[in-house]
Structure formats: structure tokens, C-alpha cells
Amino acid sequence: MLYKSSLKNRQKIKEENLRHVAIIMDGNGRWAEKRGKIRTLGHKEGFKTARKIVKFAVENNIEILTLYVFSKENWKRPKLEIIALMKLFFFALKSEIKNLNKYNIRLKIIGDISSFNERLQNYIYKVEKKTLNNTGLILNIAANYSGRWDITQGVKKVIKAVQKGFLNIEQIQEQNFSQYLSTSELLPVDLVVRTGGEKRISNFFLWQIAYSELYFTDILWPDFNQRDFQHAINYFFTRERRFGGI
């Protein structure tokens, strides 16, 4: 049974200004290995978990949910696992179009998709276009993403703007640099959740989470459920966010 959030929970999320949650979904492979199964089965279970968590986000009026599904460093994994991940990614895009539109979800892929095959790239564009006018939850999938890559490509865009005379060097400030990142259209991240027991950021949203609250849990991603998500949100509510002030 899905965890049903109360109206009180939804109102509190809105009142406490929890608008953007980002999740580092870690532990799929270990989940499978602990059960004597191949790692790819863990990724399939992780996909099922992601569907439940997206539904929870919709029910609780979270405006933006970002899921870190594949980093640039993940290309170092065994070839067969990567092939399986790419097939799962394509399957997820194809199978979820109806649900995305049903729940008024806009899908956005964040990352360097040029490394994916042409078929997958075309389908990414297709799903993004079909959900472009949806006005509910913005669902970001960070795929072939890294924080360093994001900042580097942002710097390149700034340099080009300066070279073309669209931007003066003195105009480059912290406040406007974010418009050159892949998340330029998004609100800052309020809460970062990492499953799987590791307590590091792993090259994720290095610029965007400067003042995010961080929540780490030992629960492996396939076992992470709506109640666990609520615990992370409850933790966020206990924090006093001063953003460097008193």
C-alpha cells in the first residue's frame, strides 16, 4: 500500500518553503548482491521505487524533484551493466509518458546527453516536448551528469558570451552565473537526500546545493519508501536555515 500523506503534511511543505528536493539514489547494485542476484535487477527495483517517490512528491505539492540516476563516472562500470542501464532508461521514458501527462508532470533531462545513442537522445527530446506544457511537478532526471561538468560548460557559455560582446566581464557575478548552468530554469535545491549509507555528494550539483540541507540514510534505494521520504522531509523541518546569517 502506498503511504498516503495527510493534508496537514502538504500544507506544511508549502508553508516551510520546501520546493526543490534532490535525491542521490544509491544502493541498487548492493541491494541485488545482498540477495544473490545480478546488479541489473537492483536497478529495475530502483525504477519501481522512483515511481513511488515521484507519486509521493506529486501528492505533497513538492514543486521540483531531481533524481540523480547516472553520473559521468558511472561509465567506468562493467559494460553489460551500462547496456542494461541504458535499456532501462529508454524503457522508463517510453513507459512513463502517459503517467507524466496524467499527473501533470514536466520531465527535464539534465546532463550531457550527447554521449547517449541517437535513439535514446531522440526519445529524450520527444518526452521533454510532450510534457513541456505540464504545469505540475517538474521532474529532473540527472543522466550522464556531474557537477564539475555543469560548471565547466557554464564557464564556456560565459566565455562565448563575452567574446560575442553580449556580456562584460564585470557583469559576471554569483547571482547571474547560475543562468549558464543546466539548472538555469530551476529554483535552488532545498533538500538533498542520499540513500545507501554513503555520506558524500559524489560530484552532484556542486554549485546548486551550497546552502541545501543534507539528509543521509543507510537504506538502500530499492528499499526506500514513501515513509522514509517523509522522515527526510521531517528532518528538513527541524533545520534552522540561516544562509550564513544569524
UniProtKB/TrEMBL annotation:
GO BP, sorted A to Z: cell wall organization; peptidoglycan biosynthetic process; polyprenol biosynthetic process; regulation of cell shape
Residues where Mg(2+) binds: 26, 213
GO cellular component: cytosol
Cofactor: Mg(2+)
E.C. number(s) listed in UniProt: 2.5.1.31
Positions contributing to substrate binding: 27-31, 39, 43, 71-73, 75, 77, 194, 200-202
Entries under Pfam families matching the protein: Prenyltransf (PF01255)
Superkingdom of origin: Bacteria
Keyword set includes Metal-binding: yes
Cofactor info, note text: Binds 2 magnesium ions per subunit.
rRNA processing as UniProt keyword: no
GO molecular function: ditrans,polycis-undecaprenyl-diphosphate synthase [(2E,6E)-farnesyl-diphosphate specific] activity; magnesium ion binding
Catalytic activity: 8 isopentenyl diphosphate + (2E,6E)-farnesyl diphosphate = di-trans,octa-cis-undecaprenyl diphosphate + 8 diphosphate
Catalytic residue list: 26, 74
Keywords (A to Z) from UniProt: Cell shape, Cell wall biogenesis/degradation, Magnesium, Metal-binding, Peptidoglycan synthesis, Transferase
Gene3D superfamilies given in the database record: Decaprenyl diphosphate synthase-like
SUPFAM superfamilies documented for this protein: Undecaprenyl diphosphate synthase
PANTHER family (UniProt xref): DEHYDRODOLICHYL DIPHOSPHATE SYNTHASE 2, DEHYDRODOLICHYL DIPHOSPHATE SYNTHASE FAMILY MEMBER
UniProt function note: Catalyzes the sequential condensation of isopentenyl diphosphate (IPP) with (2E,6E)-farnesyl diphosphate (E,E-FPP) to yield (2Z,6Z,10Z,14Z,18Z,22Z,26Z,30Z,34E,38E)-undecaprenyl diphosphate (di-trans,octa-cis-UPP). UPP is the precursor of glycosyl carrier lipid in the biosynthesis of bacterial cell wall polysaccharide components such as peptidoglycan and lipopolysaccharide.
Complexes and interactors: Homodimer.
Family: Belongs to the UPP synthase family.
Protein name as it appears in the record: Ditrans,polycis-undecaprenyl-diphosphate synthase ((2E,6E)-farnesyl-diphosphate specific)
Gene: uppS
